[in-house]
């Protein structure tokens, strides 16, 4: 193994970060109190972050800060203030989800190394090209990729000078990252804001398969797949767990460190993973990497599997035997905590103390000697000291001039004028220049960058005379039934389309009024097939929920609209899409409430869209969701499952809330709310703001009671919009069992 593999460890609090450093992590990702996707973790204060940077760099360990949530419009000013603080630290990188933040960093904070979060859900080459254009230096791949897919995309990413990162240990999500809205709907705790309450792991009423936790997956462990990951060329092995404690972080990092060192020296794999079972786990699976997705990934218990595992290893026969195993594990854990504490208690995260001594005499330059525990240097004025008149160099004036050297990393501990003759002065300009030289040296001989102020964003003057209706359909039958020249008709393209490429191409050629609607997930083969459709059909306009398609549409000169699953929540995301990728319009996220939408400002000649009626997609999964619910005769998914399977089922949690499990041919398994989203309020709340309101008429069977044919549904919504949102009861009377709770709660 020629390349050094990075172990990227989670750091939810100071103790976990110290444990990761002690175990030998090459990098740590951690969050501060705001703007990160683990708000349930303890996280760091800014001052703690400064101390962590100093500590980690002493051990040749990098620190990456997670700012990996979608940003609200009203938070942008605070975000810029934070970035202005971080830009002049030795932070090694920032992990990002929000398109607006990618844009800010690439345009105004170019010195920062930017990594794409797993929330971006990178899984095809087009997404990599999109991220490259935004200056991204590393991307974390979707957890759902297999080793051959990882190898293919890593080779491509490296050709674009982008590093790759793969989760190798910790919790699996049942759904694709960035596309889960289950927690958002159930309690207003959006996963895209780092507040996921994990309702997927809740208990449900026992299914026909005798399962109580039907969506609960085992934990990810690629411990035995190191050889495949090395062969794939990945750069970083990421461990999940920012809400885990120090013993977990130490144990997992230490185990992986030993595995990598053993493989590096011998080319073989260690076969004992027992230490990994001694900290929290739900048993382990590598099924996504091995492309063996199926029944064996599930476990009917969301709690730790540790005791059960070792009880089985010890062949326990009685409760007393199990209790003895528990006691042994408890004692080992206590000993481990003691070991970690004794080895890390001396690791200080105090700010670096700076001592400043001034030397000089009349007619000579002013010399300042600066000392820290890591370095000593001196700076010298270009001019000479003169007799004091109106102003004098004294402790008060020097303190005032040097105070800005205090930062999240440094604190002035001592200023001495003992070596400076009395009643002398040097110009304020010289003093400032000396202060700046000191700051430059303390900052690793890097210039101190000035604070960034964003240009004021002005609302788009464009106001549509009349908001247009658009609809989303998904079948050939719908084309004939919904034909209406006064509305835009979006036609949904499936996730798997290699076998349907010719059919879909002909549909769009024969029906030029149809606007292709691309899904959020398009694995590489389907992505390539999508590009071929674009090149042959050459549509005037498309909607895409996948950034790879967005990049290719821009390259081909095709106008495109950003779909609702791109999670657009602020003006800078819109500016990014228009300025960098020739986007002409975007759907605003349906997770936002009224006042979160109100201040979003679209750029000039940019159209805003919003879905006012649709089945509520809670999550999309590569896993078969019928295995543990209504049942399936297959234990492992095969190549026909995605392309051919079509099923619908229902499940109820212990709070009597119903959910719909839906699988359409060519599409992934999905969970939907039993209610549809219907938001008539936004029509009157934002008159002349949106170019189009969309109605989703695709065939998802929820519990919405409607007795209207699709043509009649279209006419009903047209009539409602024509009256500018008046008389919403006309719509609500025809669509029962709907909700707009996301618009009420927001994120």
CATH top-level class of the largest domain: Alpha Beta
Strand order of the largest sheet: 1-2-3-4-5-6-7-9
**Within the CATH hierarchy, at the fold level, what is the topology of the largest domain?**
TIM Barrel
Low-confidence runs (pLDDT<50, min 5 residues)?
none
Main beta sheet: strand number and arrangement? 8 strands, parallel, barrel
What is the alpha-carbon Rg in Å? 29 Å
Helix tally? 25
Number of strands: 28
Overall pLDDT confidence: 95
Structural category: alpha/beta
Query: What portion of the residues fall into strands of 2 or more residues?
Result: 15-25%
CATH superfamily of the largest domain: Aldolase class I
Terminal CA distance reads 45 Å
Helix content: 25-40%
CATH architecture label of the largest domain: Alpha-Beta Barrel
How many domains is the backbone divided into? 3
Briefly summarize what is shown.
By secondary structure, the chain is of the alpha/beta class. It has 25 helices and 28 strands. Helix 4 packs across helix 19, helix 6 runs parallel beside helix 8 and helix 16 runs parallel beside helix 17.
